[in-house]
Amino acid sequence: MRVYWHMIIAPVVAAAALVIVYTGGDVNDVRCVPGTVRKVVSLSPSITREIIDLGAEEMLAGVTSYHPPMKKNVPVVGTILHPNVERILSLGPDLVLYSEEDSAVQHGERLAAAGLCAVPLGRNRNFTQICRNYMKVASLIGAHRAGREKIFRYRAIRETIRARKKICTVAVFISHTPLIAAAENSFVGEIIADSGGVNVVGNVGAAYPILSAEFLVAVNPDVILSIMPGACEFFASLSGGAPGLKAVRKKHVYSVDERHLVYYTPGDYIEAVREIAALLRKVVQDNETGN
After folding, report:
1. Which domains does the chain have, with CATH numbers?
2. What value, to the nearest 5°, has the Cα angle with vertex 264 and ends 263 and 270?
3. Please, what are the averages of pLDDT over each run of 10 residues along the chain (291 residues)?
4. In angstroms, rounded to a whole number, what is the distance separating the alpha carbons of residues 24 and 46?
5. What's the whole-model pTM score?
6. Residue in 74, 52, 50, 205 with CA at minimum distance from that of residue 130
7. Which of 4, 95, 174, 269 is 20 to 30 Å from 263 by CA-CA measure?
8. Are 53 and 267 in contact, with CB atoms under 8 Å apart?
9. Which H or E run contains 189?
10. How far is 17 from 223, CA to CA, in rounded Å?
11. Which residues have C-beta within 8 Å of that of residue 185, sequence separation ≥ 6?
C-alpha cells in the first residue's frame, strides 16, 4: 500500500430515467452509456472498493494490485503505477475507470485510442468531491439508486460524528523520507478537521507537500500521525531528537492503521474520522489527567 500512497502524491448525479452519455474529455470519441456496462476494469484500489460497496463486484473484470478482498478471483492488470495495457485490452471491458490523480501513468488516452471507454474520475480533495466521484461510478455502472441511498446515509453519518470544535493540533505524514505531509487542502486534511484536529501544515498549495524538520519543530503539533511504521522512533530521532517537539516529548506520535485513511471512498472517509477522532479524544484526556 506504500506504493499506492505515492500516487496520491503524484458533477454527475442524474435521475434514474435519464440516460447520460460521457464523451469528450472523459473518453475521447468513445461513447459510454451508463446502464449498458457489464465488464469493468478498475485501475484504482479506491474505485474498486467503491464498485464493491455499490454491490456490483460481479462487474469487475480486472483490477490493479493492492485491491480489497473480493468474493471471486479477478485478473490483476498490473499495479496502479504500471497497468498493463495489453492485459486490459485482452479482457474486453465495457468500461475502464481510473483517477485523474493517477492519469500520468495509467494510459487513459492509449486505452481510448484502442476503442475502450476509459473514464477518469476527478480529484478527491474533500468529502464532497469523493461523494461526487462515487456517484459518477454509480451512474456509469447502472447503480445510481444504490449510490444515492448510500451517499444519503454517509452524509448523515458524517454530520453525526464530525467534531463541533477543535481539540488539538495535528500533523499527518504519508512518508518519512522525504518528509511528506497531508495539507489542509487534501481529503486527509479534511478528515483531520472532521476529527477535531487543526492541521498545522495549513493550506500550502500542494495537497501533499515535502516539509523540513525545522518547519515541523516550528509548528510543533500536539499530535503526529503517520501511515509509516516506526513513527515514534523516526520523529524521536528527527533533527537530533527534536527536543522541541511536544508530540515526541508527550509520546503522542502514532503509526496509524492505513486500512481506511489511504482510500478516497465515502465509507472509508467515515471510518477514518471515527478512528482518528477517538485517538485525538484520548490524547486530550491523557493531557488532562497528566498521563
Report:
1. 2-158 (3.40.50.1980), 162-289 (3.40.50.1980)
2. 90
3. 44 27 36 78 94 96 87 90 92 93 78 90 94 95 95 97 94 94 94 96 89 91 94 83 79 85 93 95 83 61
4. 24
5. 0.85
6. 50
7. 95
8. yes
9. helix 187-194
10. 49
11. 125, 203, 205, 207
